[in-house]
């Protein structure tokens, strides 16, 4: 079965071209060809079609084999180039081969043409596969390089002597641009056992080891790096070095230390707080801590109430009362946990372990991971309030009695006053009447005297 072959023939003689084509057919090829004999024609043919092989004469009136070879190299097209000529010597053929021609064949001995073409086509196919593989590898390498550059963690490679041989972008940013070629210990800060810890890795006994190490950043600041080190081996299983991923955890460690110190202070405050403190976790409110005031106030220990579910029936044994406050409390708590907020204080009556009752004002706040409940004992205040209430009621009764007594006395005074007023009015009228009578008597006496004088 004939094999398709796209051939670009650089030749000025049509007869010679026909001889070449006949030889190719004799070798089992079915050639598709085009003849050119100038630089412009060859350039146009290279641009318009993909060729399997180029066969070129060495000497032509308007072109040459070496010029054709230079044009092909200039366009950077990888196509086998074979010189077929009868007018050059071995020295010129050698020069052509050095310039990039794959082979040289004399026109009067074309028996080598087909084997040479078959060989060059196989080599061209091999070069193409290698080129594709190299491009794929280069693309993959660039991709990995981009990924590693985008990774915020430090990635460093050391050889068997613990000398840095490679770093990603984050590594250069931390250690500086001159890190390659320096020993890892150059950046150690203070006495440390890092090499001792990773020694099993370099001895081939471990594949991965974690180590924390204080190291010097390029600006001179001392930073704590958390390293995950993985062993590197060659095809024979021999250790060649290690690839390590590091993360700056200085701020995290400082934050944890501050948190531990804060928790320590809070725990000290909680231990001496007058409030009953109950700390739980999650929506199920699993008990994680109760302070001494809680136990002193109610008598219950952590073993008595491992969860809130255990708290409800012992603290609120009356079912109706428990159902009423539990529903309200759970609704408020659920909202507080979801919004990481607190609730308004809620006053309840708690039954203690010894059966006594206490008035408690509960407050609740959720921090997300932990839920804190604070209880304020209102029992003393409630007793005072009840005493004050009784005293006020007693005072009100006394005021009412005194008021009634005063009202009674006031009414008696008013009655007496009315009597005195009436007597005064009668006396006044009596005096007036007496005066009138005296006046009449006086008038009568005067009249009698007047009558005596007349007589």
TrEMBL record:
**GO biological process terms, semicolon-separated:** phosphorelay signal transduction system; regulation of DNA-templated transcription
According to the entry, every stretch annotated as the Response regulatory domain falls at 6-122
A Pfam family this protein belongs to?
PAS_8
Report keywords, A-Z.
Answer: Coiled coil, Kinase, Phosphoprotein, Transferase
A single Gene Ontology MF term assigned here is:
kinase activity
Ranges in a coiled coil: 107-134, 381-447
- Whether Coiled coil counts among this entry's keywords is yes
Residues annotated with 4-aspartylphosphate modification: 57
- The reply on keyword Iron is no
Ranges for domain PAS come to 262-340
Domain (PAC) spans 204-261
Q: Which PANTHER family match?
A: RESPONSE REGULATORY DOMAIN-CONTAINING PROTEIN, STRESS RESPONSE REGULATOR PROTEIN 1
NCBIfam families assigned to the protein according to its UniProt record, in alphabetical order: sensory_box
- Name the UniProt record assigns to this protein: Sensory transduction histidine kinase
Q: Lineage, please?
A: Archaea, Methanobacteriati, Methanobacteriota, Stenosarchaea group, Methanomicrobia
């Amino acid at each position: 079965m004939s094999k398709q072959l796209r051939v670009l023939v650089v030749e000025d003689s049509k007869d010679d071209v026909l001889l070449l084509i006949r030889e190719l057919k004799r070798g089992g090829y079915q050639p598709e060809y085009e003849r050119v004999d100038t630089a412009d024609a060859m350039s146009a043919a290279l641009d318009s079609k993909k060729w399997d092989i180029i066969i070129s004469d060495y000497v032509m009136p308007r072109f040459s084999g070496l010029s054709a070879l230079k044009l092909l190299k200039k366009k950077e097209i990888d196509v086998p180039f074979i010189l077929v000529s009868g007018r050059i010597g071995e020295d010129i053929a050698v020069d052509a081969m050095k310039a990039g021609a794959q082979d040289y064949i004399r026109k009067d001995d074309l028996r080598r043409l087909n084997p040479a073409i078959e060989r060059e086509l196989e080599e061209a196919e091999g070069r193409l596969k290698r080129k594709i593989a190299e491009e794929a590898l280069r693309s993959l390498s660039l991709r990995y390089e981009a990924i590693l550059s985008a990774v915020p963690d430090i990635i460093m490679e050391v050889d068997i002597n613990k000398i840095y041989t490679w770093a990603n972008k984050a590594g250069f940013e931390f250690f500086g641009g001159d890190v390659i070629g320096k020993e890892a210990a150059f950046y150690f800060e203070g006495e440390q056992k890092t090499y001792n810890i990773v020694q099993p890795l370099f001895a081939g006994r471990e594949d991965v080891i974690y180590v924390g190490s204080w190291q010097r950043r390029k600006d001179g600041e001392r930073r704590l790096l958390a390293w995950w080190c993985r062993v590197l081996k060659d095809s024979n299983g021999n250790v060649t070095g290690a690839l390590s991923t590091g993360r700056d955890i200085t701020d995290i460690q400082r934050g944890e230390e501050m948190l531990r110190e804060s928790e320590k202070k809070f725990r000290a405050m909680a231990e001496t707080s007058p409030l009953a403190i109950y700390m739980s976790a999650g929506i199920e409110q699993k008990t994680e801590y109760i302070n001494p005031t809680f136990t002193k106030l109610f008598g219950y220990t952590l073993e008595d109430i491992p969860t809130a579910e255990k708290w409800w029936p012992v603290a609120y044994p009356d079912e109706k009362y428990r159902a009423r406050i539990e529903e309200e409390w759970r609704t408020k708590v659920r909202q507080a946990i979801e919004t990481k907020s607190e609730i308004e204080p809620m006053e309840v009556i708690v039954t203690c372990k010894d059966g006594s009752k206490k008035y408690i004002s509960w407050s609740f706040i959720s921090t997300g991971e932990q839920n804190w409940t604070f209880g304020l004992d209102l029992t003393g205040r409630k007793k005072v309030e009840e005493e004050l209430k009784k005293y006020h009621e007693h005072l009100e009764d006394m005021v009412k009695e005194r008021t009634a007594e005063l009202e009674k006395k006031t009414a008696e005074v008013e009655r007496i006053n009315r009597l005195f007023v009436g007597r005064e009015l009668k006396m006044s009228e009596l005096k007036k009447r007496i005066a009138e009578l005296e006046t009449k008597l006086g008038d009568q006496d005067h009249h009698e005297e007047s009558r005596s004088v007349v007589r």
